[in-house]
Recover the amino acids of this structure.
DNA sequence: CATGAATGAGAGTTCATTCAT
DNA sequence: GATGAATGAACTCTCATTCAT
């Protein structure tokens, strides 16, 4: 989170973990392996994002807003995030399809989002002709916001406006 | 383009430029400066993307489709692109607002896109209540596709579908 | 045999022995001690080379040929041999005269060989004016062949020719 | 010469050469390359061993004795010699036949020695039925003495006796 | 007796930057 | 102006040895 993937050194890691250089290598054979494990753990933690905090009587709109709010919180954190490190890692480690955690996460989010939109359409909260593309569109905008936050920067307001626009596109009234 | 920003070495650069190591330092004081200049030049070249190839009698839809097609070509190239290097560079160099080329480029694209949408709305090609947010939405989706292309990968078909979805959102019939 | 003395690691040894790292140190205080014991055991095994397989009615020529054949087999094995490891070990551990197993082995082989040549001379199989030097000469040639096998390489034919030359030097007809 | 090939470190080398760590890598890409160059240079220097110091009217016996004396001097030096390092190097670097300096050196010495013995046979100084094998025998004894000097140790006297034995084998009177 | 997780010094190698020429 | 040999700090990774359990 502090230094990203390329700038972090073994020294940083062993000092932060209060472990010896050699000790670390008992568990991981390379910096890549360390990061993959970090990514895997992070991925497990954040899998529950949807299921957590969702009350029984929530509407699709409620859940979508909760999700977008959660995503905003994450992307606004900027530094205390694995986003940058993850991108750097993927830049130089083109992984086999099997263990591509990032892709799995993305596709899984698209899936849940599509289901949510379909539910909203059924309950007449949303209007949407192509839930799959709408879901993917939302995820891509979030991805775009994430990378923007790490590069050109984003303001809290501009993110809010953009997320509201997404809701409006689904026919949600203010 | 070949190695990104972090993996490229001075050796690579001096060999490619056929210049001496010391000679390079007469013009640039650091690797960062070199990259900033590369970025500036690239930015100048691509500024014309909109103005080029646009015939007098093009409709807003034509121009938008041309733009999206151009963007797709760029992001599908994947390796022969400064995308990765640029992201890497921005990850570790938080620049002063003044010379933030990337932001300028983004905002300038948003501006042109908004104007284009407004034109399309006037000519009744598009239906759009908030051209500013619509323009920004398109740019963010493109940004999301760009980073996805560099990390989890994208197929030509999925990009097409997603760009078509954008057009449909503006009320453009197939 | 697999890795020689310098390249073998404690990990290799504990895995091959199915013992714990700490357990190994209960019996040996260093890698040197381990190797010395290996050498001692090997030395005991190979002491019988002369006595074994020797029939009652063997001539001196028979026994010498058997010995040379045995030595050839050993040196041609090349990899499944402690030769390399032993040399490496002696290169960095100049041992006290008392426990110099290698020297003992060499001198013992010279002694037996001298006795054999003397027997051969008495039975008029061999012609030799200086059995001590002749024995030592044979051992040195074998040593030369051993190190050659490990470095520049030797062919089976060239070893044969060279060993035949030794026999001829003792007056043995083909 | 001091530490052999495996025990010598980059630190030793850069300190001895009074050069920087990086500077060394300008000329050699690995420790192996450094040693191969050392070996090549040494090989060039010692190529002249035969031709040097040989007077016009020398007999074959004179030249052979000079050669053996030279070889003895070399092997008795023990520490100030590349012998050990060379063996260690060859133990873990099985080189392609093309650049096998050690083999070339050996074969070249065998060739010259054979020519010398043939000359001696013609001038009736030597008696020898198979000059090729005799030459090879001498080289193998020398190789045996070399490795013995580095491991079990040899005394000046024992080397003398053994070299005299070689001369006697060629029919040279004391 | 036996374990094996942990240690930490030290290995080879890389590379942005400098500066005498 | 231009060169490129030289620098040295910093990197990742290894491994014989120890010691609390």
């Amino acid at each position: 989170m502090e230094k990203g993937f390329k700038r972090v050194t073994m020294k940083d890691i062993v000092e932060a973990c209060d472990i010896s250089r050699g000790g670390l290598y008992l568990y991981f054979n390379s910096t890549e392996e360390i990061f993959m494990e970090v990514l895997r753990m992070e991925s497990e933690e954040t899998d529950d994002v949807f299921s957590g905090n969702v009350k029984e009587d929530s509407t699709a709109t409620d859940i979508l807003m909760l999700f977008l709010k959660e995503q905003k919180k994450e992307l606004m954190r900027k530094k205390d995030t694995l986003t940058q490190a993850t991108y750097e890692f993927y830049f130089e480690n083109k992984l086999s399809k099997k263990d591509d955690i990032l892709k799995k996460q993305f596709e899984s989010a698209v899936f849940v989002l599509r289901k949510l939109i379909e539910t909203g359409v059924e309950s007449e909260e949303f209007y949407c002709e192509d839930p799959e593309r709408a879901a993917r569109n939302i995820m891509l905008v979030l991805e775009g916001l994430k990378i923007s936050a790490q590069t050109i920067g984003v303001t809290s307001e501009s993110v809010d406006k953009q997320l509201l626009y997404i809701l409006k596109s689904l026919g949600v009234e203010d």
